[in-house]
Amino acid sequence: MVILQLAVIFMFLAVGELIVWATGVPVPSSIIGMLLLTMSLQLGIVKPRHVEGAADFLVTNLGFFFVPAGVALMSCLNLLSGQWPAIVTASVVSTIVVFAVTGLIHQYTRKHLPHNGVSRK
Predict the structure, then answer these.
(1) 5, 37, 65, 69: which could form a disulfide with 54 (CB 3.0–4.6 Å)?
(2) d(CA 16, CA 30)
(3) Torsion sign (Cα): 35, 37, 43, 48
(4) What sign results for the dihedral spanned by CA atoms 63, 42, 13, 105?
């Protein structure tokens, strides 16, 4: 069953890859595929049971998928050694921006969008 669920997920990845190849749009194919999967789930074209088990497995083991990237990064530490101030600055600034934007969007949606049929204005 999980293999069929993975096949559904990879089908959307392949469609995203096809869209990038055909259009040359500068968005990663995985993002396009996940947006298409999300739309299909929202529209009821794909039922949650069609991807639930595979998605749970992938999310549960997400940390494992970062190991190869971490090992590759460690092998390039000599190239990065002179770039630490820029890396740390970019990390701190981007974290602050993400927190701020997330907070503002959350506040906006809580204030302006109805919640359980009740407006919060």
Answers:
(1) 5
(2) 6
(3) negative
(4) negative
Tokens representing residue 101 in the block: 């934007």
Give residue 117's pLDDT.
54
pLDDT at residue 15 greater than cutoff 80: yes
For residues 10 and 62, the answer to whether their CB atoms sit within 8 Å is: no
Write the CA distances from 23 to 18, 49, 121, integer angstroms. 8, 31, 42
Is residue 118 helix, strand or coil? strand
Against a cut of 0.85, is the pTM above it? Answer: no
